[in-house]
Amino acid sequence: MAALLDRILDDHGLIACGWSGEWDVALHKAIMGNPSRRYSTYWAARDPVGDAARQIITHRGAEVVPVTDADDFFRSLRDKLVTLARTQRQRPESVDLLVGTAKRFAARHEHRIEIHDLIESETQRCLRKLQTSTPQVDATAEGIEELVNFQEAAVEPLARTLGVFGRWGEGAERDSAVNAMLAVWQQAGDSISGGAIHFRHYPAVLLLWAYGLGMTIARRWSDVHGILLHPVNQPQGDPNRLVSLVSDWILEGYRNKLWSLLPGMEHRRTPESDRMLGVFNEWRGSFAAIQTDFDEQHDIWEILFALIYADPTAIEAGRDQWDFWAPIGRVGWRHQSRARILTRIQSGDLHGELISVGVAGGSGDKLVSLVEEYSKFIGGLRWR
Q: Are strands 240-241 and 231-232 parallel, antiparallel or unpaired?
């Protein structure tokens, strides 16, 4: 029996889950007595490992994998193995595997539980990384670049996943997607302070942009409208809409000019918007790889975001509905693209589609007036 166990340890990798290493002294001794490192060893742990486990981890060169519980760990592993078998890819990057799993789930409504679990587990992973590893930086060009690069890398798997669900989902993912964005909005920036505190919400905005771009390409206008008007409870006062929270954040970034500190953004008119489009041009392979008009789809998303924010039929109590303002990204200086899109909204294919989901209170005349106010507002801007 000892010879058989020794051969198994020599010929196979190991996954340890739910074992402290303290019990079953014979097994601990057998593993420690086997010198092989030909195959990988993974130690799934919910809590910090003890001395006995640490001995095996060091001896085998094992990788410690943080987990919430054994069921979630093995269920996630099973789903990734199924995806791996279906795609016939030998050694895919973890992000590609996650995206493949999301695509398999998004295609069928009966996977709504798996969709919830996938988004929830990836949100937890994202939050752990943001909460424990976010660099402490000053509001300098080097500091801001380090922070933003870290945040983008931390949120990329979840953002790509939400882009997939936005593009191919049928609504089963919507509540989980909103919860993911709000969890990251409320919890991910606790470790950021000082002059860089503005960037505490950047990861959550990337998630909203990913999901929103996916829905825009899929023309899921009802869900776009519903997500942006989603009420968010505040520490004091009445709930605020998600679109208003993010718009305030965009305005704050415009005023403090921190985005202009990033390399290549020093002389940009809309550095925050340009940065995010650049990020999504790298990530869109997951949900819009051959979308030839991706820049214009981004413009549509920015315009709808602004119109829904400024829509007087949905303004929060206490906000002056006659003082027109709307967040303006790079679409503000992309004149031809903006003109095409606004024509489509006023009298083209997008007009009826947006009215039917309640934009501008479902009134065609009010939608036309809203677009006119938006155009007048942009026309009065003086770009730096």
A: antiparallel
The continuous run of DSSP H or E covering 66 comes out as strand 63-66
Three-point CA angle 159, 225, 343, nearest 5°: 105
With beta carbons less than 8 A apart as the criterion, state whether 330 and 277 touch: yes
Written as six digits, the tokens of 146 are 């380090």
Radius of gyration of the CA atoms of the chain, in A: 24
> Cα separation of 300 and 348, whole Å?
14
Listing DSSP states for 209-240 in one string gives HHHHHHHHHHT-HHHHHHHHT-EE--SSSS-E
Q: How far apart are CA 213 and CA 120, in angstroms?
A: 21
C-alpha 365 chain-centroid distance: 35
- The encoded tokens of residue 181 equal 């964005």
Among the listed residues 371, 209, 183, the one whose alpha carbon sits nearest the alpha carbon of residue 288 = 209
* C-alpha distance from residue 181 to each of 64, 91, 171, 174 (Å): 27, 30, 16, 11
Q: Which two tokens stand for residue 90?
A: 């030998």
SS3 assignment, position 357? coil
CA 338 to chain centre: 26
CA distance 334 to 340: 10
Helix (H) or strand (E) holding 118: helix 112-133
Burial class (CB in 10 A: 0-12, 13-18, 19+), 124: middle
Distance, in Å, from the CA atom of 162 to the CA atom of 288, rounded to the nearest integer, reads 12
Cβ(261)–Cβ(144) under 8 Å? yes
Residue 381: which pLDDT band, with cuts at 50, 70 and 90?
A: confident
User: Which single residue is written with the structure tokens 């398999």?
Assistant: 104
| Residue-wise pLDDT tens digits, 168-217 | 999 999 999 999 999 999 986 677 878 889 999 999 999 999 999 999 99
Tens-place pLDDT, residues 18-74: 888 787 788 888 888 877 666 788 989 888 888 888 888 888 888 888 888 888 888
Q: Which two tokens stand for residue 155?
A: 């949120």
pLDDT, tens digit, for every residue of 81-93?
Answer: 765 444 333 344 5
Q: Give the end-to-end CA distance of the chain in Å, rounded to a whole number.
A: 78
Distance between CA atoms of residues 271 and 277, nearest Å: 10
In whole angstroms, give the CA distance from residue 262 to residue 264: 6
